[in-house]
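Sat 14:20. Reprocessing the chain from the morning session after the first attempt stalled halfway. Input below, unchanged.
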Amino acid sequence: MPPHAQRNSRSHARRRPRQGSGGPRNTTPTRTAVSALDAALDAALALPAPEPRTFGQLGLPQALVTTLARRGIHEPFAIQARALPDALAGRDVLGRAQTGSGKTLAFGLPMLTRLHADGSRRTTLRPRGLVLVPTRELACQVAEEIAPLAHALDLRVAAVFGGAAMGRQIDRLRAGVDIVVATPGRLIDLMERRAVHLDRIEIAVLDEADHMADLGFLPPVTQILDATPAGRQCLLFSATLDRGVDKLVTRFLTEPAIHAIAAASAPVEAMDHQVFVLRGDEKVAVAAEIATRPARTLFFVRTKHGADRLAKQLSREGVDAGAIHGNLNQGQRLRALEAFSSGRSRVLVATDVAARGLHVDDVDLVVHFDPPNDHKDYLHRSGRTARAGAAGTVVSFVEPQQQRDVTKMHSAAKVAPKTETVRSGHPAVRAIAESGEPIVVVALPKRSPQQGNDRPARASGRGRAAPRRHRGVAPRRVSA
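Finished this time. Tokens:
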């Protein structure tokens, strides 16, 4: 019997500490504990790469191997090669890897394999696999990546998130699904409506856990994981492991296998980093000049209003630019992403939160219109380009009074950008504006109605519509 078909021998020994039970696991982690976790990850990073093995040799079902091959995936990426054996064997896994490194399949493949081997029948409102993610966009992307693989094993996947019709999501859950990919807020809402129960969860995954902690999702994530069985397997993957992620690790992972393929502040050698020093009143003109380039350009700003404002300013200059931020409903966000992905719009303006987990192929230029908060946000923003071995350029707009802080940030990120003082028409600006290969516009497949619609999430307060009632489901307010 393959390891992944066996029950975890440690299941009977798993005991999650309850809140208020005392003991060091439920207190604020000390600097020593955090340092120990970092040290363990650094040690894992230093380990030699495992011997090359195919997906079949790792123990995946032939149906998965065949489906992966049809998508042109024949060998595991680095994080997959390291994490798959332990995850398939039923161990808890703590993984640190950069965005775009293949994390989704690193947890998706073992989840699908183990649920398939278990052979349990689908039960209404009771999934067996759970993936928690911080944003609606990431929920859609994860579900879209693993759903075709699940179909090959006769497993069903559903994504639930705020900003989309809750009634349709409940209908999917009532029909029976094996895996739920969810944002914490919407899942809590469904749990309190008794529209989903987590007492049959066998495998739980936290993806982009650092961002969930950064957004204040630790309490709902804790509530959700406390509702899962004590013997469930837990996999936690993240680009960084600070901002409270260590609390999740110590509370919910039991003797995890630790794997890392890149330090959180690793330099990105494939990127050409540049700094444009310019006056504040020159930023829009320079941005508009750059935005005329034939290839995709992703601009980052700090605020939601700033994203809308820059997109409108670029549009007035003749550039078709979209914006993505937290004030948009799910349909609006998906339309902006699809226009950018398909090439119908070459320019997207995004906030940090909205773009978390954003994956669009062939983005060869990222522009920090507003400087990021710190070096980790700089690396995360910049990581939208130079993916899968491709090259990319990162340009930071810096006003003179910001130079000192931005220089410190680049030093912490271990990048040494070339700096130019520019204005519209400067040769360095023209060089960027003329760079990149023209985009080939592609037709994207239509999304299912469950993946989003044009209706905004219902807000609390006067004037909202009454929530739709479902037989056997308790009514409750709707949250995003």
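The domain at 271-433 is CATH 3.40.50.300 (Rossmann fold).
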